[in-house]
């Protein structure tokens, strides 16, 4: 718990915002993507694939450091590690504006990824420490939406600064340093010791079967979300439903719906409790099947709007109850497992769709989407039946 609570009240809007603000920076790595075409021209003597790695290479160190963030936070302090992670992201994000060397830029992006890895699971842990019950459920939903908001903010800043030059566009990451100041000034030092047994000996965090299955579930969910983002342009253009601009509009609406549903998660949870999980999967199933059979841009848009409500319900529910599924004093490691699942699901989604497309019984430009939706539907039915006969995790 906080070590200095003189002016701290986690229930006030400012202190809630300071905790949620950490999540504003987590997904900003890809926000530099609009600058890639200009960078490809500037670095025309390098392969385009290498230049494109500027927007993605940070995920590699993020994945590695993610597994070490909790032990480091227990040893050096939760606030200190979050602060260090945000600082690394801010400084390394801005540096390419001053050194137009591709190898230097890729190096700074690796440091950027280390920062992401330090704060990714800790952004969830800090919510678990300060909040409980329905309040925690709402904060988890808000946290999911804040990731999208942060990405949108930096995307807009990059787009505006790109009018000056691709180098200047990296100054958009100054936004991260503003978040650092807010977090550091508002959030108190948090005492988060290593768990000990009844004899006072330190206990190692453990992972059990439910946590592993929750990680697999997150991988499946993010696999579907990544598929929507990646395959939408092909469905629109190859299916002659519209132009690439139309596809971009559909993806934008999909993103905004996901953000809105994150804010509404707390209300859905109060109404449906554990059944928000199969409801989220129902959204996923129906939305993907509509996408598969879309014959018009409007029909595709409706399908993606429905899919947009899936992860904010089902995925956020898993993050909300993971502390009840995990072994005692192993919440941080359990959160890391979920995030690893999310990263793996995103990474392998093109491979999975490539496998499902030729064996799918459905028609359409991307028939694998329909088969994936049907498989999600089967999983939904199984989970719903299990929930009917099994008690929910105690909150």
From TrEMBL:
InterPro entries: MFS, MFS_dom, MFS_trans_sf, MFS_Transporters. It is a multi-pass membrane protein. One of its GO terms (molecular function) is transmembrane transporter activity. Residues 14-391 form the Major facilitator superfamily (MFS) profile domain. Keywords: Cell membrane, Membrane, Plasmid, Transmembrane, Transmembrane helix, Transport. Pfam families: MFS_1 (PF07690). Its main location: membrane. One of its GO terms (cellular component) is plasma membrane. The chain crosses the membrane at residues 17-36, 48-70, 82-104, 110-132, 144-162, 168-187, 207-235, 247-265, 272-291, 297-320, 332-356, 368-389. It is found in: Cell membrane. This is MFS transporter. It comes from Nicoliella spurrieriana. The lineage of its organism: Bacteria, Bacillati, Bacillota, Bacilli, Lactobacillales.
